UniProtKB/TrEMBL annotation:
Fe/B12 periplasmic-binding domain mapped to chain residues: 65-318
Species lineage: Bacteria, Bacillati, Actinomycetota, Actinomycetes, Streptosporangiales
Keywords per UniProt: Signal
One biological process term in Gene Ontology: cellular response to iron ion
Descriptive protein name: ABC transporter substrate-binding protein
InterPro entries given in the database record: ABC_Transporter_SBP, ABC_transptr_periplasmic_BD, Vit_B12_bind_prot
NCBIfam families in alphabetical order: TroA_like
Superkingdom in the source lineage: Bacteria
Family under the similarity heading: Belongs to the bacterial solute-binding protein 8 family.
Gene3D superfamilies membership: Nitrogenase molybdenum iron protein domain
Signal peptide: 1-19
Length: 320
C-alpha cells in the first residue's frame, strides 16, 4: 500500500510519483542547412532565470549533469529532449525506462549523496530535510517544482524545465500539444448526461475531490465526483468508507491503485456491499496506470484520454 494521500497536493501526489505524451526519449536536433559555429552561452539562452517554487533561480550555463528527485520532472526532462543531460534520478522515477535510476530519495534526500553526483542542476518537488538550502549553500542550482494544483501550473513547469536546460522550444511545443489535446478531448465529451464517478487512490478508500489537480481533469468531462459530498473536514483527499461509496453507487469507478495495490473489478466485487454496484455489474470499472494518474507531467493527456473514453462509453450504454 502506498503512502497516505497528501500525494496529489504535495506529498501524496508527489509520492505516488515522487509522488500520473512525451516520446520517452530525447528529441532529435534539427540540422542546419549550412554548418555553423557552436552557439555561445548567451546565444543558447544562458544565463537563464526561472521562477520556481523556491523563487527566481539563475542558471549560468546549460546544465550537463542534472539530478532529478521528482518522477514528474524526470518524465518531463526526457520528453523535452534533456535526457542526455540527466546523470541520476530518484528511486521512484520509473519512466522512461532509460532514465538513470539511483538510490537517491526525494522524500528523504541526502545532501552528500546528491552532491557526490556533481550536479549542475537539481530538480525536486518537495523541500524536505531543508534540502533546497543545503544544496544552495554549496552553490548547486535547485529548481523546486511542487505538485501542480492547476493544469496551467503543469504546463508552466514543463516550460520552466525547458528554459532551465536549454530546451525551451521543445518544452513550449510539448506544453502546447498537451494543452491542445486535452482541450480537444474535453470539447468532444458528452455532457448532456450527468454521470457520477469515484476515483480510488488506494484500497483503503482515499479519493480526491474536484478541487485537486486530478479532480479538475475529471471536471472537464462533466463528471460528478462523489468525493465532493464527503464532510468538509475530510479535506481535498477524503478517506471514503465502503458504505459511503456503496450508497453513492457511482456510474463509473476509476482505479488508480492497480499497480500499488492490485485492484480490479474482481477485487472490488469482493468488498462488502460492492458486488451489486452499478459500475461493477455494468463493467464500468476503469483501471488506470497509477503513475499516469498521479503525476502532473507529459502524460496527463493519457489520463484525460482514459477519462474521455470511459465517459463516452458509459454515455453510449446509457442511451443505447
Amino acid at each position: 500500500m502506498r503512502p497516505l494521500p497528501t500525494a496529489f497536493a504535495g506529498v501524496l501526489f508527489s509520492a505516488l510519483t515522487l509522488a500520473g505524451c512525451g516520446t520517452g526519449g530525447d528529441t532529435a536536433a534539427v540540422a542546419s542547412p549550412t554548418p555553423t559555429a557552436a552557439p555561445s552561452t548567451a546565444e543558447a539562452g544562458f544565463p537563464a532565470t526561472v521562477n520556481a517554487g523556491n523563487g527566481d533561480v539563475t542558471i549560468s550555463k546549460r546544465p550537463q549533469r542534472i539530478v532529478s528527485l521528482s518522477p514528474t520532472a524526470t518524465e518531463t526532462l526526457f520528453a523535452i529532449g534533456a535526457g542526455s543531460q540527466v546523470v541520476a534520478v530518484d528511486d521512484l522515477s520509473n519512466h522512461p525506462p532509460q532514465a538513470p535510476k539511483s538510490s537517491l530519495s526525494g522524500f528523504k534526500p541526502n545532501a552528500e549523496a546528491i552532491i557526490a553526483q556533481r550536479p549542475d542542476l537539481v530538480v525536486l518537488s518537495n523541500d524536505t530535510e531543508n534540502i533546497v538550502a543545503e544544496l544552495t549553500k554549496v552553490k548547486v542550482p535547485v529548481l523546486l517544482e511542487p505538485a501542480a494544483v492547476k493544469l496551467d501550473e503543469a504546463y508552466d513547469q514543463i516550460e520552466d524545465l525547458g528554459a532551465a536546460t536549454g530546451n525551451q522550444a521543445a518544452a513550449e511545443k510539448l506544453a502546447g500539444d498537451i494543452k491542445a489535446e486535452i482541450e480537444r478531448l474535453a470539447a468532444a465529451a458528452p455532457k448532456d448526461k450527468q454521470l457520477s464517478f469515484y476515483h480510488e487512490l488506494d484500497n483503503t478508500g482515499f479519493s480526491a475531490n474536484s478541487g485537486t489537480f486530478v479532480g479538475q481533469i475529471y471536471d472537464l468531462f462533466g463528471l460528478i465526483n462523489i468525493a465532493d459530498k464527503a464532510p468538509a473536514a475530510a479535506g481535498s483527499y477524503p478517506k471514503l468508507s465502503t458504505e459511503f461509496i456503496a450508497k453513492a453507487d457511482p456510474d463509473l469507478i476509476f482505479l488508480a491503485d492497480t499497480k500499488c495495490c492490485g485492484q480490479s473489478r474482481d477485487t472490488l466485487a469482493k468488498r462488502p456491499g460492492w458486488s451489486k454496484l452499478s459500475a461493477v455489474t455494468g463493467d464500468k470499472v476503469i483501471p488506470l496506470d497509477d503513475d499516469v494518474a498521479s503525476r502532473w507531467g507529459p502524460r496527463i493527456a493519457e489520463l484525460a484520454k482514459a477519462i474521455s473514453t470511459a465517459a463516452r462509453g458509459a454515455t453510449a450504454k446509457a442511451t443505447g
